[in-house]
Amino acid sequence: MRFGSFLVTLVGVGLAAGAVFLAKDYLGDPTGAATASPATPQTVNIVIAKRDIEFGQPVGPQALTVQQWPAEAVPRGAFTSISALVGDDATQNKRALVRLYEGEVILASKLSEPGERVTIVQKLGENTRAMAIKVDAVTAVGGFVTPGDYVDILLTQTSGDSMRAGTILQNIRVIGVDQQSEESADQPVVARTVTVEVSPDQGQRLALAQRAGTLSLTLRTLNEVQDTALDLVELSDLFAAPEPEVEVDVQAEVEAPVSPRKPSITVRRGTETQTVQLR
């Protein structure tokens, strides 16, 4: 009897222990599936700027460093090693086509060809020209025009006592202020020349306008604006009195009696014709 009781107790303890382990597994993973450890994301080396690199400066190994980057997020045109970007001959180093900031990923689209000379020419679009305009603090918007801005160009002419002004070019991109062509410049500079990007035809107009009078720049808004042709403004227009408004009595015009048309006949005698009104 005692042996039977002992056996029943032993079986009960075993069942209880099994139930505890089953409950632990169920609470730890309700789906009953084994928990898999997350996969470690793959990374690769990528070349970034170790310090700021100005426009036109050569990109040498001293200005570069590498950083771990997710392999699936590597930008197009990035370099995975410094040796792939910089050669043994320092004179053949690529140059920055734009300003590169510290920590920025180095992309092939922002670099010149090996040994290529970088000037303002690289900023010009297809079939465009760079042309300088003589300005001062007043005609250049107080020095607030910077590379990358868009402006309208106005011509002011004086002839005796008469003056006139008109907009000759609209939506023109500024690519240089004096010898500064870096578009990240945000400090006002009182310049003596502003270089703009124009088409060949616009360049001819601009050259003639500089000889014909004084050029002024107006800074455009960042929002897109539909350009329209503007009329010339003369000095007399500033003081011209507005035309008086004529009030028209529409009701009187509507109610005005209409004279009835009298009947008539046409009498022809040979080559002569006569119209006779009938009473």
Secondary-structure map:
Blueprint: H1 2-28, E1 43-49, E2 64-70, E3 129-134, E4 150-159, E5 162-177, E6 193-198, H2 200-212, E7 214-219, E8 233-234, H3 235-238, H4 250-255, E9 264-269, E10 272-277
Antiparallel strand pairs: 1-2, 3-6, 4-5, 4-7, 5-6, 5-8, 9-10
Kindly describe this structure.
By secondary structure, the protein is α+β, with helices and mostly antiparallel strands. Among the domains are: 41-118, Antifreeze-like/N-acetylneuraminic acid synthase C-terminal domain (Type Iii Antifreeze Protein Isoform Hplc 12); 125-238. 18% of the residues lie in helices and 26% in strands. It has helices at 2-28, 200-212, 235-238, 250-255; strands spanning 43-49, 64-70, 129-134, 150-159, 162-177, 193-198, 214-219, 233-234, 264-269, 272-277. Strands 3, 4, 5, 6, 7 and 8 form a six-stranded antiparallel sheet that branches. The protein has a two-stranded antiparallel sheet with strand order 1-2. A two-stranded antiparallel sheet has the order 9-10. A hairpin with a 2-residue loop joins strand 4 (150-159) and strand 5 (162-177). It starts with a helix and ends with a strand. This is SAF domain-containing protein. Residues 257-279 are annotated as: Disordered.
